[in-house]
């Protein structure tokens, strides 16, 4: 299940464009859609990414795979999986808040996003300062 760079860019652009069009229609009150419906392009894109990530991680379980090769790689993929789940949690909490399904404070809605951003900064700092260069 491999996609070329051009296919990934086109897919990302297409889903982002579709999401933004639906968001603008909702914010301009031209479409009385549910907020969960507005976020469908984001969730479809995230599902595709999650499936690709899980397939790559499951490839480590096949026979003949040496676990010493790529121990950093599995840590990176595990971080990507956690990041995707944090993004999903944020989107679900945001939609629930906007749709008024819950009365939680907006600060609580943003906790998964803050955790994602802090984790991203930690990973960036690690890659800049601690990764050995050849």
TrEMBL record:
It comes from the Eukaryota. The chain crosses the membrane at residues 36-58, 78-100, 106-129. Keywords: Membrane, Transmembrane, Transmembrane helix. The keyword Transmembrane applies. This is TMM60 protein. The lineage of its organism: Eukaryota, Metazoa, Chordata, Craniata, Vertebrata.
């Amino acid at each position: 299940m491999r996609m070329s760079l051009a296919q990934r860019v086109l897919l990302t652009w297409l889903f982002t464009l579709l999401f933004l069009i639906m968001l603008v229609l909702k914010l301009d009150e031209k479409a009385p859609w549910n907020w969960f419906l507005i976020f469908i392009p984001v969730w479809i894109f995230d599902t595709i990414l999650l499936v690709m990530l899980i397939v790559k991680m499951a490839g480590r379980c096949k026979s003949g795979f040496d676990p010493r090769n790529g121990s950093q790689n599995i840590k990176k993929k595990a971080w990507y999986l956690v990041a995707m789940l944090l993004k999903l949690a944020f989107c679900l909490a945001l939609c629930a808040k906007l749709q008024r399904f819950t009365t939680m404070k907006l600060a609580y809605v943003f906790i998964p996003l803050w955790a994602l951003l802090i984790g991203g900064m930690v990973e960036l700092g690690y890659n800049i300062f601690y990764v050995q260069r050849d």
